[in-house]
Amino acid sequence: MLNVAIKAARAAGAIINRAALDVEAVRISQKQVNDFVTEIDHASEKVIIDTLLTAYPDHGILAEESGSTHGNPAADHIWIIDPLDGTTNFIHGFPVYCVSIALQVRGKIEQAVIYDPTRNDLFTATKGRGAFMNDRRLRVSKRIRLQECIISTGFPFRKGDNFNQYLRMMGDVMQRTAGLRRPGSAALDLAYVAAGFTDGFFETGLSPWDVAAGSLLVTEAGGLIGNFTGESDFLEQKECLAGAPRIYGQLVGILGKFSKFASAGDKAAVRSAVETLSRDRTSDSHDPEAEAPDAAAEGSEPKDAPF
Predict the structure, then answer these.
(1) pLDDT-based confidence at residue 284 (cuts at 50, 70, 90)
(2) 156 phi and psi, to 5 degrees?
């Protein structure tokens, strides 16, 4: 089954790479604000589904673009597919995107493939048999001090996202780490946690096809993945936190209060802090002195200044 998934991912990657040679010619439509889909998403998804169902006609499919319309939705074996994770990056020519395929058996992820066509990096995992990148065994980062860690995330871009709450989350993490990164593909973000390239990852609003394959990579590489309060049943909950075990625990301590499953007291404290931040941002945006350039500062630079 893993080999069939690899075959499907590489076939999709070939379609994506051909399109990337002339990305401006790709037809694009918008599902909602800042949420794009291209003809390449659809072509990639079709070749993946065709490959999987040719080998396993009785299996089910859950795909980003076509949902559960293909295969047998009542099957024990469900393939969870994101044909092009990082579409916004792709249509801008920014080379951070991937194909993600996972096999869920009776509710548990048992096979995973993430393929990065721009670098020809193939991440694979089988439950109980470890995670690999191009046949090299993966282990999560060994760092245990959060202040030495790089953490990846996703920024809010959907209509209705709580932007001020995200600012609080990012601020709390940024002040305690060596840096925050936003590559733009959640599936690759999780693969990079598994590989130890980053030490942790968090994001809200994600769907099962964004995180299914990456979740198995992380756990098979020795990491932990769950929601913001540390519970492992996260796939349908639209909040995801992953990392090396010691870092994961520290991130739960920081992000747990932002979880939809947080205690009433934590939620009230977060709400109050977010409202304060929102008022501060609103007052700053209407402060004429904040917007006006400092006249005294203009022209005050010495004539022989080097820049």
Answers:
(1) low
(2) -65, 135
